[in-house]
Amino acid sequence: MTVYDAAHIRNVALVGHQGCGKTTLAEAMLYSAGAVPRMGTVEDGSTVSDFHESERERGMSVFTSVLHAEWEGHKINVLDTPGYLDFSAETITALKVADTAAFVVDAAEGIQVGTELAWTYAAMTETPALFVLNKLDTADSDFATTLERIQDRFGRAAIPIQLPGGTGTRTIIDVLLMKQIRFDESGQAHFEPIDEAFAARAAQLHNDLVESIAENDEGLMELYFEKGELSEAEMRTGLHKAMIARELFPVFLTVASENVGVSRLMSFIDNVCPNPTEMEPPHMDAGEVHVDAQASPVAFVFRTMAEEHVGEYSYLKVYDGMLTGGMDLENAHDGSMERLGALFAVNGKDRDGVPQLVAGDIGVTVKLKHTSTGDTLRARGSDAVVTPVEYPEPRMRLAIHAVHTGEEDKLAQGLAQIVKEDPALVVEHDAHLGQVTLAGQGEMHLDIAKYRLAHRANVEVAFDRPKISYRETVRGRAEAKYRHKKQTGGAGQFAEIAMLVEPMDRDFVPDGQMKIRNEHTAETEWGSRVHFVDAIVGGVIDMQRFFGAIQKGVADMLREGPVAGYPVGDVRVVVFDGSMHSVDSNENAFKTAAKMAFRDGFRDAKPAILEPVVELEVLVPGDYMGDVLGDLNTRRARIQGMEAEGPFQKITAHVPEAELYRYSTSLRSMTQGRGLHRARPSHYDPVPRDVQQTLVSSRLADAE
Fold it and tell me: H or E stretch including 125?
């Protein structure tokens, strides 16, 4: 295969909502370029992109597929991203390494949540973009309405390059070329004069395009004033600059399933879209890169995937220098050295060996030993570190366990592998709750993880409702006294403690003869605090000797609280009286007495169970606001605000974590797949009395 320099490379990510036709468009691009002998279809599972078994079973993209096509002296790397919202991390990753985002929009459905989300990500990465209005052959497609909606949402910078024309769906009027293009059954383009019926509309759109281009370039504006027109070459130059600056977003038309409009789109990508050298360098944690083939090598690993009989594929974007097989590079993450294996350009699962990968190009290598997704490979002595992808916060969390006893190690190894491949998955182990949780972007995301564990790690797993990390505290103040006395024939045990238990959020005011002699605030392993106060007067307890034992006794009760067995925090413990025996008092005796005194005092000090509360943001079309708000009310939500965000409404609320089990699934059901939410930990609040009674009763039942 030909090795292309950066000036002749284009990296394009196909992004958009589920079902808009991205995979079909990618297939048509490969077919137009002669990379495949015929076009496959999503329906029969024969596309180059969707080659994983889990994708073919579901008839949808799950992973970003990397493809390439050679077209008119250029190499176009295509990143075909999933549109299902659970796999938004794939879109974010693709946009990090792409130089152009092609927003594929269903001409009937228009802007959907997936389009909106991808637009947000493209703005964050400052990726130049264009729009592709696809599926113009469907009965309810509407070019004018869809274009109007795009411009209403994303501005008049979304400028049409084409409009439908002629008979049927195989003819497109191109107002940049001012030609009518008819596509035959094979997708071959035939350029013709514009039919008279479309001439006036084409002239109007051409003039709008010329003015938009001139407005964004002073030099072209002067030429436009001088000549009253711009040449095709001048328009391409202006569009090129405006795209890089994200000032214009060209709009193209396709019927990808019929290979209509695809070759024209590819020519535009070659001739107008930016090449890697013209883009701002990626965000760096350290050092610099310049997309310079003569510089020392720097490559970013944006994905790791294991394939049967091959091992791990590492997908690379080369930012500097030139990679060759057998080259030794340093992993910036841990300083280990990696020897590159063979290098490939890939089309789905098919590999084309290449002698080298130059700056700006995308490819894969195999069997790296120490490298994971997000790592930077560089020449030894370089300080370059490409900033890893920042993945979205998980939207669903489920407890996970091996179905068969004794396969816990296999599960741990399998989880480590799938998280290495997909860092948008988050594994957490909570020793206190005794559970392992797997968190992701939604039910489909976690189902795919389950599938991969079964087929790759050979471990069958089950999901459960995750336990909630409740906490216990007190809202009142109480005193308790406990005497521990035990005689066993020899030396006995004796300790007596009088203790005050109260909330830590109030200042300690000594009562009566209490006097602070020593105090210590301890941080618990679950993030709470306990304030210990020694207020013993008159030496009735040797606190220099026994204060540590008293703290340990209380700490034993903190791990499993006195009310329902949940961890305790944010309490003050004041030891103000007691007694000891010159022979029988020892650390174990005071530890036991402290534990029991704390238990009794805690139960009398208005104990409360606290629950974790999250800040929830819900993004929905306005038509579904009533249903979503009604549902949130059933989840004990406290609405914090509502505001418009583009064509959607954003609801902000505080909701108990316990009420959000499988919320992403419920939201999608309520909104026909058009709702999106984000949740982040906020604070702890006391549970309602009825909930507390239920939790206590449940704990007592478990104890029996």
Answer: helix 113-125
Return d(Cα 555, Cα 533) in angstroms, integer.
14
Write the DSSP string, 265-278: HHHHHHHTSPPGGG
Q: Is the pLDDT of residue 704 over 60?
A: no
Domains 396-464 and 472-605 are alike in CATH topology: no
CB-based contacts of 324, cutoff 8 Å, min separation 6 = 340, 343, 355, 356
Q: Select from 3.50.50.60, 3.30.230.10, 2.130.10.10, 3.40.630.10 the CATH code of 472-605.
A: 3.30.230.10
Residue 408 has which token pair? Answer: 């816990």
State the fold for domain 396-464.
Alpha-Beta Plaits (3.30.70)
CATH superfamily of 284-386: Translation factors (2.40.30.10)
Going by C-beta distance under 8 Å and a sequence separation of 6 or more, which residues neighbour residue 567?
A: 432, 469, 471, 472, 524, 526, 528, 558, 559, 560, 561
- Angle of helix 625-634 versus helix 663-670 axis, rounded to 10: 150
Q: How confident is the model at residue 309 (pLDDT cuts 50, 70, 90)?
A: low
Residue 368, judged by CB atoms within 10 A of its CB (0-12, 13-18, 19+), counts as: buried
Q: Per the structure block, which two tokens stand in for 195?
A: 């039919």
Half-sphere exposure of 357 (CA within 13 A, CB side): 30
Task: Please report, for residues 297, 407, 680, the alpha-carbon distance to residue 335 in angstroms, rounded to integers and kept in the order given.
Answer: 15, 33, 34
> Token pair 């808009």 is at which residue?
20
Q: Residue 362 pairs with which residues in a beta bridge?
A: 317
pLDDT at 223: 85
Q: How many CB atoms lie within 10 A of CB 535?
A: 23
> What is the CATH number assigned to the segment(s) 6-278?
3.40.50.300
pLDDT in the model for residue 166: 64
Residue 458 pLDDT: 93
Residue 230 identity: L
317 strand-pairing partners: 300, 362
Element of type H or E holding 497: strand 493-503
DSSP string, 455-490: HHS---EEEEPPPP--EEEESS-EEEEEEEEE--SS
Give per-residue pLDDT as tens, 48-102.
988 777 777 777 888 899 999 999 999 999 999 999 889 999 999 999 999 999 9
For the stretch 313-356, pLDDT in tens is: 899 999 999 999 999 999 999 999 999 999 999 998 888 999 99
Strands of 74-80's sheet in order across: 65-71, 74-80, 9-15, 100-106, 129-134, 249-253, 158-160
Task: Name the pTM for this structure.
Answer: 0.86
Domain ranges of the chain: 6-278, 284-386, 396-464, 472-605, 609-700
Q: Does domain 609-700 have CATH number 3.40.50.1370?
A: no
State the sign of the Cα–Cα–Cα–Cα dihedral 46, 50, 55, 60: negative
Measured over the CA atoms of residue 33, residue 38, residue 43 and residue 49, the dihedral's sign is negative
Return d(Cα 373, Cα 300) in angstroms, integer: 9
User: Residue 16, exposed/middle/buried by CB under 10 A (0-12, 13-18, 19+)?
Assistant: buried
* Exposure b/e, 578-588, CB count within 10 A at least 16 = b: bebeeebbbee
Residues of the chain above pLDDT 70, percent: 98
H/E run at residue 79: strand 74-80
CB-CB contact of 130 with 249 (8 Å): yes
Name the 3-class secondary structure at 617: strand
- From the CA atom positions of the chain, what is the Rg in Å? 32
